Amino acid sequence: MELDPLILSRIQFAFVVSFHAIFPVFTIGLAAFIAVLEGLAYKTENPVWVKLSAFWTKVFAVVFGMGVVSGIVMSFQFGTNWSNFAQASANFLGPILSYEVITAFFLEAAFLGVLLFGRQKVPPGLHLFAAIMVATGTFISSFWILSANSWMQTPAGYELREGVIHVVSWSDAIFNPSFPYRFLHMALASFLTGGFVVAGVSAWYLLRGREVEANRKALSMCLWLLLFIAPAQAVVGDFHGLNTLEHQPMKVAAMEGNWETSRDVPLLLFALPDQINQINRFEIGIPSLASMILTHEWDGEVPGLNEVPQDEQPPVALVFWSFRIMVGLGLLMIAFAVTGLLLRAGGRLWRNTWYLQGLRFMSIAPFIAVLTGWFVTETGRAPWLIYGVMTHAEGLTPSLTGGMALFTLIGYIVVYGLVFSAGIYYLMRVLYVGLEDRDEGEHEAERPARPLSAAHVPFEIGDDENETANTATQGGH
Amino acid sequence: MELFDLPLIWAFIIGFGIIMYVLMDGFDLGVGILFPFAPNEEARDTMMNTVAPIWDGNETWLVLGGAGLLAAFPLVYSIFLPALYLGVFLLLAGLIFRGVAFEFRFKARTSRYLWNWAFAGGSTLASFAQGAVVGAYIQGFETENGVYVGSALDWLTPFTVLTGLGMLAGYALLGSTWLILKTEGRLQAWAYRITLPLLAGVLVVFAIISVWTPFVDDLVRNRWFSNLSVIWLLPMLTLLCAWQIFRSVRNRSEGMPFVATMGLFITTYLGLVVSRWPYVVPPDYTLWEAASAYESQLFLLLGLLFVIPIVLVYTAWTYWVFRGKVRAGEGYH
């Protein structure tokens, strides 16, 4: 059997991007949270804020580290597997990605060193400044990368000369039609991710009675934040959907599982799309609701997949189900945010074990929502690499063989698998040890004092006997 | 109207970015290469701490190199990367392992040796791959109509293996002179001891590469033995730097060995650039033929002129924050 470099490259890119994306989406929200904590610590001199900031900075360091190393791969992927695409789009994508490096990556990297290692080396004001710069850097980075991605979805401000993109208006290209929606949607997703992770971890500590004062503060802050942004995300998502309907109707048709252009289209809650026969099986839907949501009229016309030949349709089942998982999780997030308010009003927030348990599990929800959302938007534009301009097949590296693509695909899976397992495992250890001050002196007496990295938690379980005793029993230290 | 020769300006900028990367990530990769040979575990802790707060910023220059190349010379980007496909993978895999080792090693107890290997192995692999890329660049690439048409392993030849080894020795030298600057006591004494053998290794590899290169490529041969005698100034300067390293190590100078090693890299690099100028994709394409659109080069240049000075200022500031000797057992917080 002949190995297909196109399929393998697409799998490889999807794998590398999916793996990478979950880290920045978390660190953007977390960096902002840390900057706020540092600000509160600077202003009030209440040690609780320092304690919270120091703890979440440890978590940040691990996640950011994995984001950086997986991100370096990204800047070379266009060239290795998609060199035709790189050459055709370089006039736009090159400057945009370079701007990301010089305005964001350097800022993050330089000030991260100061944030992690500099608390004793620089005055408190500069340390706070470093925290703000790291948070700003993560934000600037998402601005550029979403501009680049949005342009590939809704290209604008360019003209084609001999198959090569030439930018005629930088403002039209950077602020392309889908950019504002995508950027807002992603920014809110980052805050939702940071918020739900911090809330879930804090809830878990509260259930075990650990560092009650600090963790209540953290949880309370997150719940206020989530109360506003979870519903806001639904609104932004709706606007984004309308924008997609205007510019990428086939993506919306796949999201809705709508095979034929028609009016009074139902909102499908469940269906098994059958792309070969171009129909759905086992449909359950609410009449006319899709028309209402998409066109804001009960009998509005919704485009169907039959407007393009079958080989130009996106993979319908994947898009359809990814979309439903994302929206379902979004609704669940809103429910949790609102329930938090109700419990708070009744003064039962800290006592409701069910709710705190639920929050624990909700900390992975935003990651799944982000990944499924990304599947919707990326596979939904198939077969286009640059929508309406260049297909995946046209963008592929001509000299790439199936064997090479397979070799590196397996390579990345192995490398990332090892790194990811170690990272997740270590993160669990950091969370397990928690915010409590540990008795360093006793522990370090046995050996020459170890210099510290950002997080000071042993890698293996059971290496540190007094650790469990130290963490499990105490509330306030 | 094309007022300026933008591709030429961009060649200087990319060239500056590359040498910044080589000098800055070079010494922290060098620390990784020397890692297995360190006198003891405590020395390894200190070695790692000399670079922990800054390595991430150093490596960002590589990302800038990738993105900048795509922006200014897309033809180079879209020929080099497919041609060096497997080498690039090895480079990236090496950088991933060494990058995460910074985070995990200090907390590992029983599994620490694994992270030592990840750091040392990753640094060595990445350094070797970078040297092989330089060799492949000297060798040239098989292209048709702006597209790479060679096969997956064309880059891997005895010559590129040698340049890979040369880069390993060179980075190790940068690493050892960096350690002389940043450490004291037993570790510094060790760094002093290994520096001269490393220098000898570097000079031997450089000598072989210098004799070999004219046989690899006609263009280089003609350039070297043309009437352009000023070109011989660069090897002279290189030797002068080597002499300076030798002397300053003998005199137990702390800063000069590192500075002179950087000088060695800069002169060698200039020698390479002069030998190949103006071909960026040898043997077929010059920098003007590989350039992106004028308006794209201009758009990025305007931003760069504002932002890069600021980047340099705060990068220098972080080096200032973490200045001075790194002592065993000294934590950063």
Automatic annotation (TrEMBL), chain A:
Protein family: Belongs to the cytochrome ubiquinol oxidase subunit 1 family.
Main subcellular location of this protein, as a coarse class: membrane
InterPro entries: Cyt-d_ubiquinol_oxidase_su_1
Database matches in Pfam families: Cyt_bd_oxida_I
Transmembrane segments: 12-37, 49-76, 96-118, 125-146, 183-206, 218-236, 318-343, 355-376, 404-428
Membrane disposition: Multi-pass membrane protein
Intracellular or extracellular location(s): Cell inner membrane; Cell membrane
Record protein name field: Cytochrome ubiquinol oxidase subunit I
Keyword set, alphabetical order: Cell membrane, Electron transport, Heme, Iron, Membrane, Metal-binding, Transmembrane, Transmembrane helix, Transport
Source species: Marinobacter qingdaonensis
Source organism, top-level taxon: Bacteria
Automatic annotation (TrEMBL), chain B:
Membrane protein topology class: Multi-pass membrane protein
Keyword Coiled coil assigned: no
Annotated signal peptide: none
Record's keyword terms, sorted: Cell membrane, Membrane, Transmembrane, Transmembrane helix
Subcellular location: Cell membrane
NCBIfam families: cydB (TIGR00203)
Record-given protein name: Cytochrome d ubiquinol oxidase subunit II
Membrane-crossing segments per the record: 6-39, 83-101, 113-138, 158-181, 190-212, 224-246, 258-279, 299-322
Keyword Cell membrane part of the UniProt annotation: yes
Family statement: Belongs to the cytochrome ubiquinol oxidase subunit 2 family.
